[in-house]
């Protein structure tokens, strides 16, 4: 793939003169081959294409890191993506073509009625029932539960926040799926917390499996029934530096080769194997994205998971005080968007302010905004922490 890229992809033409080809070992490749960032891919997208390859598949990223991106994937790399998914379903006793529910962002409507109709018909043939994350609320949940009962899917897959919201709405409205055939819940795209996994499992009465991937990088890893996240090593090369920054290459994508792509995810690999006997490398945990870190004035960074800890503590101290929250960092300010619960007390503001001063950083200004609804990002994902502008803060 490196040889093809250096010969046929304009972006890599110059690299041939800077490195020794072919690479003797992986260490040399990791150290010597330049890294590529999302920004570079956006700016150089035309130069990154192999013009001689005429057949490919286009994948668009949702823009969760701020910039939507289109990546062209060779048929061979796409086949590996599908094969990885087929193998994952097989681990769980499911089949690729089993009926399923997809909780996702609204799929773009086609301009013509006929095209829309054909799209819906295609989903029907694929055995898929679509649920729009933007359309999940107390008024629609009853209808969705009924639709699932009628559809009888074998698994449910979706954004973690979408699946979690579905479970919360079912729980709040005392709903159950009657005669459910669901064997597995698959969550993706957002970090899954232990308590969230437990809650979803309790509501649906089946296990939750995590999948980790990116439209621009392929399927990285899938969770096995023993609970380990196994890397799809046949089709993706993943490494990390000493700061746990992920660097990966989707092998076989010689239509648009993204070699040594640093997508700002932070990952920790496990030193141990898995009791399931599969020898594929195991991810111990996904720490999150660089964008998940709170910037302090002195240049230090704190992981935004600290807010989850704060809100867990708050729930213990003041039971049923807050339904949902989101923290927005805007320069030196942290804005807490809060949906109040029945036991809300104004002293909660003091509790959070003190926690930010002692656990995050003292110089951040803490503001509160009470809302009835926490809005999803435009890509349909729900984030509990977002950074509006970080460039005002010294890095
Ligand atoms: Zn395993």
From TrEMBL:
Transmembrane segments: none
Domain of life: Bacteria
Name under which the protein is recorded: Phenylacetate-CoA ligase
Organism: Lutimonas vermicola
């Amino acid at each position: 793939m490196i040889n093809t890229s250096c010969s046929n992809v304009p972006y890599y033409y110059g690299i041939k003169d800077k490195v020794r080809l072919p690479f003797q070992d992986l260490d040399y490749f990791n150290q010597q081959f330049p890294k590529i960032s999302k920004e570079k891919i956006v700016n150089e997208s035309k130069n990154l294409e192999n013009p001689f390859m005429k057949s490919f598949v286009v994948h668009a990223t949702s823009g969760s890191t701020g910039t939507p991106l289109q990546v062209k994937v060779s048929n061979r790399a796409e086949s590996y993506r599908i094969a990885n998914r087929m193998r994952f379903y097989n681990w769980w006793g499911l089949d690729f073509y089993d009926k399923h529910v997809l909780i996702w962002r609204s799929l773009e409507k086609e301009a013509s009625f006929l095209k829309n109709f054909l799209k819906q018909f295609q989903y029907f043939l694929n055995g898929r029932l679509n649920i729009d994350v933007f359309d999940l609320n107390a008024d629609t949940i009853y209808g969705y539960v009924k639709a699932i009962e009628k559809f009888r899917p074998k698994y449910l897959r979706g954004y973690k926040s979408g699946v979690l919201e579905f479970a919360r709405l079912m729980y709040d409205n005392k709903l159950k799926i009657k005669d459910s055939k669901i064997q597995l819940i698959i969550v993706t795209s957002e970090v899954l917390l232990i308590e969230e996994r437990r809650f979803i499992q309790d509501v649906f009465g089946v296990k939750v499996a995590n999948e980790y991937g990116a439209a621009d990088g392929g399927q990285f890893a899938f969770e096995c029934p023993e609970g380990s996240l196994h890397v799809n090593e046949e089709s993706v090369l993943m490494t990390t530096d000493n700061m746990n920054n992920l660097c990966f290459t989707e092998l076989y994508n010689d239509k648009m080769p993204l070699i040594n792509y640093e997508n700002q995810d932070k990952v920790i690999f496990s030193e141990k194997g898995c009791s399931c006997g599969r020898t594929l490398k195991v991810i111990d945990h996904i720490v999150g994205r660089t964008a998940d870190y709170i910037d302090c004035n002195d240049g230090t960074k704190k992981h935004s998971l600290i807010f989850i800890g704060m809100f867990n503590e708050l729930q213990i101290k003041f039971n049923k005080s807050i339904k949902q929250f989101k923290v927005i960092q805007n320069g030196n300010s942290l804005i807490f968007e809060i949906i109040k619960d029945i036991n809300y007390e104004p002293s909660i503001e003091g509790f959070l302010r003190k926690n930010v001063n002692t656990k995050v950083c003292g110089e951040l200004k803490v503001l509160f905004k009470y809302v009835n609804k926490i809005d999803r990002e435009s890509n349909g994902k729900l984030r509990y922490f977002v950074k509006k502008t970080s460039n005002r803060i010294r890095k």
